[in-house]
């Protein structure tokens, strides 16, 4: 059985991530989505909220399973008995960072390989930060995120503005 792991922060999941997930799910027998619980960057959604949104928006994909993970990505990959890490590449500017983490992961766990998928052109500009900024300023992000994420963003910014 060919298994792969697609990991990230998913704060929140966007159509760009879903595009990668749906395409990978057609290539591999099984895809585990690893949602990093603790990350260096400041997050808007809690680990539990990020996990729930990934779970909800991928429930139509029968060979995809979302998991929260803590600690090293390679340890999560090992625990899922997988050897492939999937990353999406949006632009040339992603390459340097991706090269660094793919090399570090290979060094930490030599059996692992990272496969890169080009993000579809229509989402190549997208990032979770961009979605959050536009939503925070009251702009529409409905083309960039699934409806459940759109609603969650609105609720979140409403509750923050009432604090
Ligand atoms: N569509 C839209 N956005 C995309 C995208 C796509 N196809 N691909 C990446 N992005 C965006 C993300 O939304 C994110 O945007 P943001 O910075 O505005 O939040 C950015 O690109 C990169 O984020 P992501 O893909 O989630 O990766 P990350 O850098 O946040 O997280 C981990 C990477 C979690 C996999 C990495 O930090 C990790 O492995 N952590 C575990 C600890 C560990 O093992 N560390 C050692 C690694 S060497």
SS class? alpha/beta
Integer-rounded radius of gyration: 16 Å
Main-sheet strand order equals 3-2-1-4-5
Which ligands appear in the coordinates? Answer: coenzyme A
Poorly predicted ranges (pLDDT <50, ≥5 residues)? none
SSE arrangement, N to C:
EHEHEHEHEHH
Distance between the termini: 49 Å
**Number of helical regions:** 6
Q: Your description of this structure?
A:
Its cofactor is Mg(2+). The record marks 17 as: Transition state stabilizer. Homohexamer. This is Phosphopantetheine adenylyltransferase. By secondary structure, the chain is α/β, with parallel strands linked by helices. The protein has a single domain (3-161), classed as Rossmann fold, CATH 3.40.50. 42% of the residues lie in helices and 19% in strands. The protein has helices at residues 15-27, 47-57, 73-79, 95-108, 128-136, 147-161, and strands at 3-8, 30-36, 64-69, 84-89, 113-118. Strands 3-2-1-4-5 form a five-stranded parallel β-sheet, with helices on both faces. Strand 4 (84-89), helix 4 and strand 5 (113-118) form a beta-alpha-beta unit. The N and C termini lie far apart (49 Å). Bound molecules: coenzyme A. Coenzyme A (COA) binds at residues 7-9, 11, 14, 16-17, 20, 36, 72-73, 88, 90, 101, 104-105, 119, 123, 126-129.
């Amino acid at each position: 059985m060919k298994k792969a792991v697609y990991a990230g922060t998913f704060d929140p999941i966007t159509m760009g991530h879903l595009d990668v997930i749906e395409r990978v799910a057609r290539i591999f027998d099984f895809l585990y989505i690893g949602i990093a619980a603790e990350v260096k960057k400041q997050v808007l959604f809690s680990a539990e909220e990020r996990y729930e949104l990934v779970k909800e928006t991928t429930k139509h994909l029968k060979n995809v399973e979302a998991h929260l993970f803590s600690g090293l990505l390679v340890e999560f990959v090992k625990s899922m008995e997988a050897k492939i890490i999937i990353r999406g590449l949006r632009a040339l500017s992603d390459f340097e960072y991706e090269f660094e983490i793919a090399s570090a992961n290979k060094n930490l766990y030599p059996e692992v390989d990272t496969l890169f998928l080009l993000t579809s052109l229509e989402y190549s500009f997208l990032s979770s930060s961009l979605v959050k900024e536009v939503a925070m300023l009251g702009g529409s992000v409905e083309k960039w995120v699934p409806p459940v994420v759109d609603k969650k963003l609105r609720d979140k910014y409403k509750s923050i503005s009432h604090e």
